Structures are given as structure tokens and as C-alpha cells.
Amino acid sequence: MTKLRSKERIAEVAAKQAGQIAYSQLKWLRIAPSTIAVWKSDGYLELSLPYVFSVGHNASSWEADLWSAVLYAGPGAMLSHGTAARWLGLIDFAPSAIHVSTPRQNRSLPGIHVHPRRGDLDRHFHKGIPVTSIPVMMVDLAATSGERVVHRALGQLDFQKLLDVAALLGACRRGRQGAAALREAIEAYDPRRKHANGRLEQDFYAFCERRGLPLPLLNTYVHNIKCDAYWPHQGLVVELDSELGHSSPGQRRRDRRNDMVLRSHGLTVIRYDWDLVHEQPAEVCRDVLGALARLMAERRLRAS
Q: pLDDT above 70 covers what percent of the chain?
């Protein structure tokens, strides 16, 4: 095989792996060690991890980092734990280290947590990258993440119509790390959580649960306006203003216009931001309870 043809084959393999290729794959393509050494010296192959190369460039991306970790962990490896959950779009933030599971024995590296000797796992592919099955991933997530993260993943599975409670419970084998935590999370799961959009809304709903507030509907349309939290019986709307969605002049004009429309239909609109929800929870709780009580009293008065 000519060097030109070899490079074409390498580029073809690497293109499916975000520009990454493993040394074992180069051997499978029958690339001589001397040729690999030449390509390393002229920059065609850049070492990204032990026995893993970037092909033709060293530009980094999260997808390339994920592929590097999977290739480093060896044949049969896959994303797992919180990394798989984030790649599947089930949680909002990836863990600080990339988690990969492999049937082989391999050591972890800084920034890469290898879970070795897991030969009994099925590999599935999402956007081209191998991942553990959803039930296994959820047990692993429960073993390494807090309750809020697990509830977020359950809500996203529910929202995507992928929530299979029987399969999740079937993965909770006795003695398996994370099994008890996942069973508890499933038992406590509230399907309304699936409508939470972002961290602030998740935290506000959990805040209502902890403080004993009546639980609102989340991200529901009221008079053709999507409201973050809505108590229909009391006629209260709470809007949660994150920096991302409510910071520009155009977004603020839209918010004021929506508030005016909702008030024209007799609804009360209150706005809280991240700092109020997280730094003054007692005041927010009193404010919401006071508004709910006042609105219910007004409704009873009108009905009498």
C-alpha cells in the first residue's frame, strides 16, 4: 500500500472519530512503525493521549477529547457515567473528568477516569460515539452524582420519551454501586420535572418541594405565552430570569410585553433571578406564599 493510499485510509477512519486514531488502528491498517515515526516528526500525527493521535491537526474539541478517551481505553471502550449522560443530552454539565468504561485493564489519566474490566456492558452509539446503555448509565450516574443531577436525567429521559422504569430497575442489581440511589430517585421522581428548562427552573421546582409550596406547572402556555411556573387555580405566574435568556434589551422588552398581556387577563406576574432564588430563599418563599394566599382570598371574595 502506498503512503498516499495509507493516508487516505487513515483519514477515512479518523473522520469517523473526530480526527482521532489509535495506534492499534494504525497497526490494523498495516502502517509500519517507521512510517508512524516519520508522520509524527512531520506533524501529520500529533500525540493527543498515550497511543492516540490527532490526524493532520491538533485542534481540540469536546468531541475529539471524548474520542481520544475512548480510543485510549482500548477496543470495546465506551463513554459512561456522567460523560455519557451529558453526551446523550440528559444533564446540563459534563463532569470535570471524562468517564469511560472498558472491558480491558487500563489506568486513568489526569482528566480521564477509566472504569476497567467491565466486559459485561453493551455498547450503543449516539452521534457516532459508543456509550453504555441507558439503564447502566443511569446506575453509574446515581453512583457518582447528586440527587438533583439524577432527577434531571430522569426528567430528560421522560421528556424524550425514553424513560423505561422497568429497564432502569432491572439494572439496579443488588450490591451494585448506585442501584439504591437510583431506586430512591425513581420512587421520588415527579413527572412534572421533565418540563424544567435549565438549572434555574430545576432549582426553583426543587425549592418549592423543599419549602412545602404548592407545586406549579412548568413551561406551560398561558394565553399563548410560555410561562416558567404557573399556578392556575390562584392565577399566579412566576418568571425565572436567567442571565442567558433575559439579558438583552430585546429580551427585556419581550418580557415586559408578555407581562402586560398576562396582567390584562387578570394574572399576577412575579419575577425572580438566580441570586434571589439561591441567596434569599426564605424571602422568596414568603413572597410566593403571600401572593398565593392573597390571590386565593380574592378569588373566594369574588365567588361569594
A: 96
Per the domain annotation, does 8 fall within a domain? no
Question: Can you give the chain as a three-state secondary structure string?
Answer: CCHHHHHHHHHHHHHCCCCEEEHHHHHHCCCCHHHHHHHHHCCCEEEEECCEEEECCCCCCHHHHHHHHHHHHCCCCEECHHHHHHHCCCCCCCCCCEEEECCCCCCCECCEEEECCCCCCCEEEECCEEEECHHHHHHHHHHHCCHHHHHHHHHHHHHCCCCCHHHHHHCCCCCCCCHHHHHHHHHHCCHHHHHCCCHHHHHHHHHHHHHCCCCCEEEEEECCEEEEEEECCCCEEEEEECCCCCCCHHHHHHHHHHHHHHHHCCCEEEEEEHHHHHHCHHHHHHHHHHHHHHHHHHHHHHHC
Range of the domain at 234: 195-303
Above 70 in pLDDT, residue 49?
A: yes
**What pLDDT is recorded for position 273?**
93
* Count of domains for the chain: 1
> Does residue 247 carry a pLDDT above 80?
no
User: Does 225 reside within a domain?
Assistant: yes
The answer to whether residue 285 sits within a structural domain is yes
CATH of the domain at 298: 3.40.960.10
pTM above 0.90, yes or no: no
Q: Is 109 a member of any domain?
A: no
